[in-house]
Structure formats: C-alpha cells, structure tokens
Amino acid sequence: MPSCLEPGTAVDAPPASTTILLVEDDEDDYLITRDLLSDVEGVAYQLTWLKSYEEGVAEMKRNAHDVYLVDFRLAGADGLELIREARAQGCVGPIILMTGQGDRQTDLKAMHAGASDFLTKGRIECSQLERSIRYAIEQHRMRNEMQRHAEALARSNAELQQFAYVASHDLQEPLRTISSYVQLLQRRYQSKLDSDANEFIGFAVEGARRMQTLINDLLSLSRVGTRGRDLQPTDCGEALEESLANLQAAVTESGAEVTHDPLPIVVADKPQLTQLFQNLVGNAIKFNSGQTPKVHVFCRPNGKECVIGVRDNGIGIDQRHAERIFQVFQRLHDREKYAGTGIGLAICKKIVERHGGRIWVESQPGEGATFLFNLSQAEVKAEANAESQGEAKPEGKAEAKLEGAEKQ
Fold first, then answer.
1. What residues have CB less than 8 Å from 73, skipping those under 6 apart?
2. How many CB atoms are closer than 10 A to CB 201?
3. How far apart are CA 293 and CA 361, in angstroms?
4. Which helix (H) or strand (E) holds 221?
5. DSSP characters for 117-163?
6. Which of 318, 323, 216, 234 lies closest to 273 in space, CA to CA?
7. pLDDT digit string (tens) for 303-362?
8. What is the pTM of this model?
9. Which residue, among 140, 336, 310, 158, has the nearest Cα to 236 in the 3D structure?
10. Neighbouring C-beta atoms of residue 403, cutoff 10 Å
C-alpha cells in the first residue's frame, strides 16, 4: 500500500461506516492501524489521521467521530494529557489509548484519564482491534442511554414532586372553604331537612375529610425528598419512642402490645425515621385480625448495615402483592373496613430509599407480616451504643398522629 498519505486526510469508506480519528505521530504505526482496520471483515471504517497534540485536542472536542485512537507517546506530548485535555474541552466520545509498552499502571492511568480501553502496539490483531472499537462504542452508547434515562427520570421525579406539592398546597384553601360551609350547613339545617338530605350532607362532609387526609399525605410524600434534614447518627430507640408517643391513642384503643429489642445507632434523618416507624407500627395495629395486636421491633446486624424489622400478628399479606403495596394509591382492602389513602407505605419506601436502603415485606395471609428495611450503622463507641439501647419492653402511651400510615 502507498505510504504517502498526508495527515488529516480520511480513507474512503461507505457513508454508513464507523468514523475513527487516530492521533499518532508515527506514519508507520498509522499504516499498521489502517491495514488492521481494512482486514476486518464485514465492517467498514473511515479513518482520519492527525499527528499532533494540538490538532488532536481541536478535533476531538468537536465530537465528530465515533471513536478516538490516541498514541501514548506523541512528539513532545503525552497521550494521557491529551485525553484529559480533550475531556476537559468537551470530548464525550469513546477513547482507546495505544502504546508500545503496555503495563497495568499505564492501563489504570488511562482509565483514570478518561479512556475506554487500552491496547499495546505490536500485539494487536485485527480481530482484537475490532473488538476493542466495538466494545468502546457500545459501552459509550449504553452509558449515554443510561445517563439520558437517569436525567429523564430525575426530571420526571422533580416535576412530580413539585406538582404534588403545588397541587396539594393549592388545594388546601378551596377544600377548607367547601368543608367549612358543608359543616355549617349540617349544623344549621340538620333538624330542618329530611333523612335523605342529612345523609347527602354527611357524604359531603366525609368526602371533604378524606380529601384533606389525601392532600396531607401527598404533601408528606412530596416532602420526603425536598424537605429532609441531613443524615447523621440517630438513635433508633428514640425515634421509635417518639413514634409510639404519636400513636398513643391507637395503642390505647386497640390494647396493642408493642415491644422492641435493643436498637442501634444509625445514619438517618430522625424525623423521617420516626415517621417510618410510625407508619409501620400504625399499620401493624390497624390491620389486626381481631385479636390483640402484638408488634415487635427487632434488629439484625449485617456488616456495616443493619436490618430492622417490624413484626405483627395481623391479617398478613399475599406475597403476590409484596411489591404493589409500596406503590402510591395501592390498596388491598375496602376503605370502609380499613381507613387510609394508600400512600403510607409509599412514604416508607421513599424514606428508606433516601437513606440508601430498601424495604420489603415477608408475610402470608392470616400469619401476620414482617416489614424489613436496611440502614447504615453509625460508627460510635460500643459503650455509648449500649447505653442508648433499652431492653425489650411494652411501650408507653401518648397522643396518636397517624400521618399517611397505612398499608394499602
């Protein structure tokens, strides 16, 4: 093959070919690379050759090629520095570093600089070069696609949170007006209306009350990601105690027995951890099977994490619905039998995910349920941790405030 091609010219190829930019100061190495690419069967490549660091950076930042091959040692320059500079100036395409002396240290430096792969000159076969190019392009495509999906999901979540907050906030005032006037109508004219009219007014009052609960729960859901505090060492036992104080009325009315094992210090947002316990324990009390509700909170260490569980003797859940119950507005039972909006467990899931964990349920119908979630343990002295943990015991009573607490 002739060796008189000037740098910067492209080897002709079909329009649908893969475009490659080679930054290489040695013409012999350029010709070897060109010949290797031409020997690949069934694939068409369009190769453009540049010799200098400056030309390479200027061309690479245009993102006009499918893949970039960069020599490790350019005249008076470093290929790693070229990669770093090209990335800094906006090059986003896949880059493969080529060197005459391959070693693991150089490979790691290349990856750190932003290269997608690393090849050693003199050992490259056409099939290896083709695989490396194909892998780099596919990896780049998948990374871009994942990034686009992540950005779209982030935008969607942000818009959904903003919509939920604004809609819920803006609905508060007209709903209060409707509720106030309907209740006024009920008080003033109840004795002057027939039974049907009184029943209709009762439906309106109850509907307004349910709407107010729904709005409050939507606000709680939207605030998990936008109004949360910094995560810091938090005593699970204290968070559980606060949640039980909020649930005092429900505990007293149902006669529930709530116990717990010693609980750890975790990295958490304490108000959200309190709400998490409140929703789960509140569910355990509400979804009882007719017998005295018994709820036990326990912890299983798991390395630097811990798995916390809330176990009850309630009606249980079919495992077919184990994922569905954590979705917004998903209910398994009639509202007349078990009150709620179907947002409580969605709030739990969002809280746990904000803390970097996951939540799941283990249950069978009629055999109670165990809700489990994992959190990171805080690094504290063992004696301090022991002092903050109490023995298993029935919990006290305080005012109940079940905000968004329900399974379905």
1. 79, 99, 100
2. 18
3. 18
4. helix 195-226
5. EEEETTS--HHHHHHHHHHHHHHHHHHHHHHHHHHHHHHHHHHHHHH
6. 234
7. 889 999 999 998 888 777 778 888 766 655 555 555 555 678 888 998 999 899 999 999
8. 0.50
9. 310
10. 17
DSSP-assigned beta bridge partners for residue 74: 77
Taking only the tens place, the pLDDT of each residue in 367-389 is 889 999 999 988 755 444 444 44
Report the alpha-carbon distance of residue 346 to residue 323 in Å, rounded: 11
User: Residue 368: left if φ>0, alpha if ψ -120 to 50, beta else—which one?
Assistant: left
Q: Which among 210, 280, 206 has a CA at the least distance from the CA of 243?
A: 280
Strand-pairing partners, residue 295, are: 258, 312
DSSP state of 336: T
* Separation of alpha carbons 161 and 51, rounded Å: 52
Q: Is 159 exposed, middle or buried (0-12, 13-18, 19+ CB in 10 A)?
A: exposed
Structure-block tokens of residue 103: 């070693």
Is the distance from CB of 289 to CB of 313 less than 8 angstroms?
A: yes
What was the pLDDT predicted at 67?
93
* Element holding 180 (H helix, E strand): helix 126-189
DSSP summary character for residue 395: -
The two three-digit tokens of residue 367, written as one number? 């055999």
Asked if residue 79 lies in contact with residue 70, where contact means CB atoms within 8 angstroms, the answer is yes
- In angstroms, the CA 84 to CA 264 distance is 45
User: Closest by alpha carbon to 402, among 230, 256, 203?
Assistant: 256
Widest CA span of the chain, in angstroms? 106
Give the separation between CA 180 and CA 238, rounded to whole angstroms. Answer: 38
- CA dist 381 and 383 (Å) reads 6
> Can you tell me the distance from the alpha carbon of 33 to that of 121, in angstroms, rounded to the nearest whole number?
9
Count CB-CB contacts under 10 A for residue 2: 5
Q: What is the mean pLDDT of residues 245-261?
A: 91
Does an H or E element contain 210, and which? Answer: helix 195-226
Residue keyed to tokens 């061309």 = 59
Residues 6 or more apart whose Cβ sits within 8 Å of residue 165: 219, 222, 223, 226
Secondary structure class of 254 (helix, strand, coil): helix
Question: To which residue do tokens 């709620």 refer?
Answer: 340
Contact 371, 359 (CB under 8 A): yes
